[in-house]
Design goal:
This protein has 91 residues and is an alpha+beta fold. Strands 1-3-2 form a three-stranded antiparallel sheet. The protein is built from four helices and three strands.
Amino acid sequence: MDRDESMLTWKDVAKLIQVSVRTLERMVADREFPPPVKVRGSDRWTLGELRLWQARLRWAAEAGQIATIPGQIATNSDSQENGSSNRPKPR
């Protein structure tokens, strides 16, 4: 099975997008996040679905359709590109 096709649980997805499971449930109910598929009676997502969701959010943010990207996972390269850092600013 391709890594993008690995099956993820509610807990896995919530951890990856940095929200609680309850927030993820609300996002699915409000159609802000793709619904899971049933696999042998359990809800699952693929990593590829998550990447597609994040790409769509980035596109919408760049197009000015949304102000922030919920669940965006920041990386060190993101903060370096934006010229920001995690260090506090001197006073």
